[in-house]
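I am writing to request your help with a piece of structural work I have in hand. The matter concerns a single protein, recorded as an amino acid sequence and a row of backbone structure tokens. Could you please explain, in whatever detail you think fit, how the structure tokens follow from the sequence? Thank you for your consideration; the sequence and its tokens are set out here:
>
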Amino acid sequence: MTAPSSTHPGTPVATVPRTTSFTHDWADGDDDLATRIVEAVAEITDQDETHVERLYDRLDPDSLNSLFSRTDTNRYAADSLVMFTLEGCTVTVYGSGLVVVQRI
């Protein structure tokens, strides 16, 4: 006996994207990078944001902002990047402001 199939041939299957990205403005103090990362991870993993692993358990979001802030470091960090995992996703934050979240 086989288990019944949840899809039928020809029936479109909703898929969750494996990668998403957004741009963060380091100069905009009102743009909360930590929240946007959690939102992106929730989208990729198809779960509610409240169920995503706490970003603060992985890194200090204020330190992340400081790392790329030109006024805090007195250097241009556009060529820099930080990569970490969160909830089965690789999160790459580039100094240019690009943030890429990819499901592992």
Observations:
- The first strand starts at residue 19 and ends at 23.
